[in-house]
Specification:
By secondary structure, the chain is α/β, with parallel strands linked by helices. It has 3 domains: 174 residues, 2-Layer Sandwich (Chloramphenicol Acetyltransferase); 216 residues, Nonribosomal peptide synthetase, condensation domain (Chloramphenicol Acetyltransferase, 2-Layer Sandwich); 294 residues, Rossmann fold. Helix content is 37%, strand content 21%. The chain is built from 22 helices and 29 strands. Strands 17-16-25-24-26-27-28-29 form an 8-stranded mixed beta sheet. The protein has a 6-stranded mixed beta sheet with strand order 4-5-6-1-12-11, covered by helices on one side. It has a 5-stranded mixed beta sheet with strand order 10-14-15-7-13. The longest helix is centred in the first third of the chain and has 28 residues.
Length: 805
């Protein structure tokens, strides 16, 4: 079949009704013909010709949510050196607008439908000009940055147009800055390259007074949109959708990374960028690794990224969005339009895999996606019936790799005008995190673009260092499970020192965590939960009540340690009041409780109203549900003042009180932060009684670090199956437990272990127990914690390794 015949066949297909298109496609398949290889017919006059492409529908929806937003603006800034012919510049852009329908398109709603309206007689493009020649160099540079940012952030009206803005800033007689901005609904990254290439040709021709030698466009964007809809809706969409639905399953929970700030209801899309190179020798080893395992460099870099995300999230199913140019049709390669598609690459990351196994899993994911790349992301979202919002569905993290980027710092036209790109300092972030890698001149570069709504620069710099460490480990083909590949702990102190007098104390650290993460769940206990903001507010109210009762520095307050949210509120309230707490376990004999109250000199006790116990006559009992009536002045504790007193069994059989200062407790929290893998931890579990200090590792580690604390009930920690079920259901990342207790829980298998870190303390650890832990969870970080209560919970920490083999 010759070219004319295939073009007629393609045109005939588009002219059919939807039902007949489906029959036509089946007939072609029966003849062994692949419809996707047929050409795109131009100018087919059918009723649906002006309907939007799938990508444009998504852009229209997002624009309606935020018409004043700039998240989908595509800005470009170019410095022009040499003689600039403004008339030729105007002519070149007018010719571009006449050549590409998308540049003279607006979008009009017709009931529930939206259509592209192309202005066949578009007016000349309005070329805005600004003279900055009177400004000195510093003021001129500041003006360029201000105007460029304003252009990049100025909204577009999709219903009125135009959707291309051009602005020229004159700096000197032969020095200008050209600012171009398009809306994503009519362009993509590929389009920007097309626009610049054609502009150069048209400008040179206009300066010379000749006709530009550009090949005629075989189709316009509306032809592509019509062809795409017709083919997919005739059955191809169902075939590819079946693959994606099977691949993604029914659970579409987003990737939960530990954030520096709580996600707001409406994102600002403000972003920042962190760039860094990858050493040439590492790049060469990565290429060798890719060849050895029959994968691409893209797959190797993606594997390292997915592994890092698994470490941080603790989740097995890692979904990353990957943009594809979607320009696999020759007819569309020279068009300006929104062709780009996004794929969701879903991979189950098992920390027990070795490097070869990890690469093969990522390869399988990428190859499967590539063979089903025509399904528009918007159709997948619609088919999965996901909530429509401004937040990206299915994924919050993006990865993009460009194999080769031209090493062009400047371009010189035939007319003597030199163009050099200007890096824009302002970045928009449509996702929480995006990793871009590219090769230029043999050098591999990487950059994290991140949403400043949720991430700090320091966090992203750490991410960059840790991803680079994983890349280097893959390049070195480090043996063992990928879950055991080490991540650097950056800027970690090698030892602890005495805290300074003005160092934040524990209650101040908790308050700071509450300000950073007010909506994050702080505690879950006995079926009740509270956010950081709620916990902080309740503790403040208790503190006011205690101050009214005369509590201040070095004054002890008894707290009923009953594994409840109110118990935590009471402890924090005592610390905020400047006092010290004495935890009292309700199951202890009344004689022991009375002894501890009398021996410690405690005069105030916080407990629920329904707790029945005989107390010494001189002890004032306060109901922990009763808040203070005002805001009395408090005396802030110093580092040397008491924070708590805990009674141990003592060597004589008589309970002995151990007093710990605020400064020592703050120093201990520093130790927790330095030694636990906090970057991978979202939640911690307190297993032991709050009346002992064993649980302080998790209690203060969680509340001061902004993590969720799970306070397990006594019944839960004595039932192996119930214990394991709770850890699994709530995806607990870290816990501390006595070795003999853990031994009993391990009858439930791997589920009885946390996801990221296990701390053992209170007893010696047998090689047999350690071997069993390693067998069940080889990638789990296991720490041994040792020290008497007098050393503030513990004084020594060491990572344990299986020595049984």
């Amino acid at each position: 079949m010759n070219a004319d015949q295939t073009l007629k066949l393609a045109r005939r297909f588009i002219e059919l009704s939807p039902d007949k298109r489906r029959l036509f496609l089946k007939a072609l398949q029966g003849e062994g013909m692949d419809f996707s290889v047929l050409p795109i017919a131009p100018g087919v006059d059918v009723a649906e010709r002006d309907q939007l492409s799938y990508a444009q529908r998504r852009m229209w929806f997002l624009w309606q949510l935020d018409p004043q937003g700039a998240a989908y603006n595509l800005p470009m800034a170019v410095r022009l050196h040499g003689p600039l012919d403004l008339a030729a510049l105007q002519h070149a852009f007018d010719a571009l607008v006449a050549r590409h329908e998308t540049l003279r398109t607006r979008f009009v709603a017709d009931g529930d439908d939206v259509r592209q309206q192309v202005d066949a007689n578009a007016a000349p493009l309005q070329l805005r000009q600004d003279a900055l020649t009177e400004l000195d160099e510093n003021a001129r540079q500041a003006a360029i940055e201000t105007i460029a940012e304003a252009e990049a952030l100025a909204p577009f009206d999709l219903a009125s147009g135009p959707l291309l803005r051009v602005r020229v800033l004159q700096l000197a007689a032969q020095e200008h800055v050209l600012l171009l901005t398009l809306h994503h609904i009519v362009a993509d990254g590929w389009s920007m390259n097309v626009l610049i290439d054609e502009f150069l040709c048209l400008y040179d021709a206009a300066v010379a007074g000749t006709e530009a030698t550009l090949d005629a466009l075989p189709i316009q964007y509306r032809d592509f949109a019509l062809w795409q809809r017709s083919w997919l809706e005739a059955g191809e969409q169902e075939r590819q959708l079946a693959y994606w639905q099977a691949r993604l399953g029914d659970d579409h929970s987003p990737l939960e990374l530990p954030l520096d700030r709580t996600r707001q209801g409406r994102p600002s899309y403000r972003g920042a960028r962190h760039e860094f190179p990858i050493a040439t020798d590492v790049t060469e080893r990565l290429r060798g690794l890719a060849r050895k395992h029959n994968v691409t460099l893209f797959m190797v870099l993606l594997a390292a990224f997915k592994l890092l995300l698994q470490r941080y999230s603790g989740q097995a199913a890692i979904r990353v969005g990957v943009p594809i140019a979607n320009r696999n049709r020759a007819e569309g390669q020279g068009l300006i339009g929104c062709f780009i598609n996004t794929q969701v690459l879903h991979t189950e990351i098992d920390p027990l895999l070795d490097i070869a196994g990890l690469l093969q899993r990522v390869r399988e994911t990428a190859v499967g996606a590539q063979s089903h790349q025509d399904l528009p992301f918007e159709q997948l979202v619609e088919a999965l019936d996901l909530p429509r919002s401004s937040e990206s569905p299915l994924f919050r993290v993006l990865f993009n790799h460009q194999a080769q980027v031209a090493d062009v710092q400047a371009i010189e036209t035939r007319s003597g005008l030199r163009l050099a790109p200007i890096a824009l300092e302002k970045h928009s972030a449509r996702f929480d995190l995006a990793l871009d890698t590219h090769e230029r001149g043999g050098q591999l570069q990487a950059a994290f673009t991140y949403a400043t709504d949720v991430f700090d620069a320091a966090t992203i710099e750490t991410l960059g260092e840790q991803w680079l460490a994983l890349v280097q480990a893959l390049a070195a083909e480090t043996a063992g499970a990928v879950g055991e590949l080490a991540l650097p702990r950056l800027a970690t102190a090698t030892g602890l020192t005495d805290p300074a007098d003005d160092a934040p104390l524990v209650h101040q650290r908790f308050a700071a965590a509450a300000r950073r993460h007010p909506e994050r769940t702080a505690v879950m206990a006995a079926g009740e939960q509270a956010s950081f903001a709620e916990l902080d507010a309740r503790a403040e109210a208790i503190a006011n009540r205690l101050v009214e009762a005369g509590v201040g520095p070095d004054r002890l307050v008894g707290v009923l340690a009953d594994r409840s949210v109110s118990m935590l509120v009471s402890i924090l309230g005592v610390l905020k009041a400047g006092g010290a707490y004495l935890p009292l376990e309700p199951e202890q004999p009344a004689e022991r409780l009375a002894y501890m109250l009398a021996d410690s000199g405690t005069r105030v006790l916080l407990a629920p109203e329904n707790w029945q116990a005989e107390l010494p006559a001189n002890v004032q009992r306060l109901d922990w549900a009763q808040a203070g009536t005002g805001s009395p002045a408090r005396t802030a504790p110093a580092a040397a003042n008491l924070a708590y007193v805990i009674y141990t069994s003592g060597t004589t059989g008589q309970p002995k009180g151990v007093a710990i200062s605020h400064g020592a407790l703050a120093n201990y929290v520093d130790g927790i932060t330095a030694r636990l893998p906090v970057e991978r931890i979202r939640s911690m579990a307190q297993v032991s009684t709050p009346a002992a200090d064993l649980g302080h590792t998790m209690l203060f580690g969680a509340l001061c670090g902004g993590h969720t604390l799970h306070v397990l009930l006594r019944e839960q920690v004595l039932d192996a199956e119930g214990f394991a079920a709770y850890l699994a259901e709530h995806q607990v990342d870290a816990l501390k437990i006595v070795p003999s207790h853990l031994e009993a829980m391990l009858v439930a298998g791997r589920a009885a272990l946390p996801g990221q870190c296990l701390v053992l303390g209170g007893e010696g650890v047998s090689p047999g127990l350690l071997g069993k832990i390693r067998q069940l969870a080889p990638a789990l970080k296991v720490l041994n914690h040792y020290g008497p209560t007098e050393t503030t919970v513990g004084v020594l920490v060491a990572e344990l390794h299986d020595q049984t083999s």
